Every structure is written in structure tokens, then in C-alpha cells.
Amino acid sequence: MTDPITIAIDGPAGSGKSSVSKEAARRLGFGYLDTGAAYRALAWHVLQHGADTSDAAAVVDAAGDFDYAISLDPDEYWVRVGDTSVTEAIREPRVSSAVSGVARVPVIREQVNVLFRRLVADSGRPGVIVEGRDITTVVAPDAPVRILLTAAPEVRAARRSAELTTEDAAAVAAALHKRDASDSQVVDFLTAAPGVTVVDSTDLDFAQTVDAVLDVVRSGTEGSR
Ligand SMILES: Nc1ncnc2c1ncn2[C@@H]1O[C@H](COP(=O)(O)OP(=O)(O)OP(=O)(O)O)[C@@H](O)[C@H]1O
Ligand SMILES: Nc1ccn([C@@H]2O[C@H](COP(=O)(O)O)[C@@H](O)[C@H]2O)c(=O)n1
């Protein structure tokens, strides 16, 4: 069987990577891999250990018994650590606040990148949309389609606070920008690397953004599908 086509999508927090990638994957009959979920699930696991994600040694220690599984089915998304479903828990603000500490540990990044490539290879799908921060540059720099999905910071913050209706909007915006500032010290997902196509959704609605991504995918995979 031939290797699945990888569609690589990066972008800052709240740019629409997961929701847009999931819908695009559905439309293409592809798998969908949320790489941020692995960092989030490990952050959740570190917190379960009663440890602090700013302590790199504690993160590496917790990774030793991190039994992680994720679905690549865009219609049946789930994330598990051992027997525990953490699909919702990893979206909680306490995990979002802690996750950058995990993402800062180089050995963890190396381990999860090996996992991501294996999950794509074993997906059994004709293609997989893989989204995160360093997919276009580190995880799959040779992918036939590489996209940087962006939106203006205030638009991203507004979309995220519309989701988290019980949270204070200013606090949500501050947390989102703080996470981007921290993450962008580790990998550059704010500027497009050479060969990466920018899709800016600032003035697009959700359906238009999905269509814009699908247009880029079609033009990048013509002849290979
Ligand atoms: N073009 C768009 N127009 C309006 N809303 C959008 C658009 N794109 C995404 N959204 C909405 O914005 C919110 C954030 O999107 P999503 O969670 O997919 O972002 P993300 O980049 O995966 O964020 P994070 O990195 O923090 O996980 C969601 O509620 C999503 O439905
Ligand atoms: N390729 C990636 C993906 C994610 N991260 C880190 O995980 C956090 C959560 O990611 P979301 O996509 O769910 O927001 C993110 O803030 C990064 O710290 C990463 O480093 N590389």
C-alpha cells in the first residue's frame, strides 16, 4: 500500500486549524491528526501527577508512563490516556495554560514527532491532514501541501471567547496571546516557511475557509490522487 498523502497545516492558537482541518478531512475522505492533543494530553498527565509543566525533568518523568492514543477519524474524534478519555479535559483552561511548558522540552518534541509520523503511516487512509505548529517545517517538511492558517489576533481571540462562554473574554484573549508568545519561542508558526501557502481567514467565514484550504489541497495534489 502506498504512503498516505500528508497535508500539513500550521498556525497560531484559535486560527481554526482543528475545526477547519477536521471538516476538510471529512470532505476529502482523509484522516485528521490533531498534534496539539498529544502536548495537551501530556500536560494533563503531568498535572495528574501533581507536577508542574514548567519543570522539564518532571515532564520527562511523566512521559515515562504516558499511554497515549488518539483517533484520526474526523467523524469520531477522541483522545485517551490509558483507559481515561481526556477528549474534553485537555481543552480546559488549566491545561491550555500549562501546555507550553511541555512543548518547550526538546526530547518530548522528538518523541511525539516520531509518533505523529507513525500514526500517519498506519492510518489506512489515502491521506491525512496533520495540524499543529511545526508540521510544515519539522514533522512533514516534504508534504505535497503545506499551509499556514492565520487570522488577525483580535479575530482569533473573539472566536475562542465565543466558544468559552463561561470565561471572561479579556482573560481568554490574554491567555491565547500569552500561549502564542510562549510557543513562538520554540517554533515559528507566525511566518510561512518557503513553499508554504498562507490562508488568512480574518475576513472569511468557516465555510469559506474550508473551501480555501480545499482549493490549496487540490492544486497541490493534482495528479497524485
Ligand atoms: N473562518 C472562520 N470563521 C468563523 N469561525 C471560525 C473560523 N475558523 C474557525 N472558526 C471557529 O474559531 C474557533 C477556533 O477554531 P479552532 O479551535 O479550530 O482553532 P485552533 O487553531 O485549532 O485553536 P487551538 O490551536 O487553540 O486549538 C472555533 O470555534 C471555530 O469553529
Ligand atoms: N505541532 C505542535 C502542536 C502543538 N504544540 C503545542 O501544543 C499546544 C496545544 O496545541 P493546540 O493546537 O491544541 O492549541 C500549543 O499551544 C503548543 O504549545 C506544539 O508545540 N507543536
TrEMBL record:
Catalyzed reactions: CMP + ATP = CDP + ADP; dCMP + ATP = dCDP + ADP
Pfam families registered for this protein in UniProt: Cytidylate_kin
InterPro entries: Cytidylate_kin, Cytidylate_kinase_dom, P-loop_NTPase
Protein name (database record): Cytidylate kinase
Broadest EC class assigned to this enzyme: transferase
Catalytic activity, EC: 2.7.4.25
Chain positions recorded as ATP binding sites: G11, P12, A13, G14, S15, G16, K17, S18, S19
HAMAP family: Cytidyl_kinase_type1 (MF_00238)
Organism: Microbacterium aquilitoris
Coiled-coil stretches: none
Family: Belongs to the cytidylate kinase family. Type 1 subfamily.
Domain Cytidylate kinase: 7-218
GO MF annotation terms: kinase activity
Main location: cytoplasm
Localization (cell): Cytoplasm
Alphabetical keyword list: ATP-binding, Cytoplasm, Kinase, Nucleotide-binding, Transferase
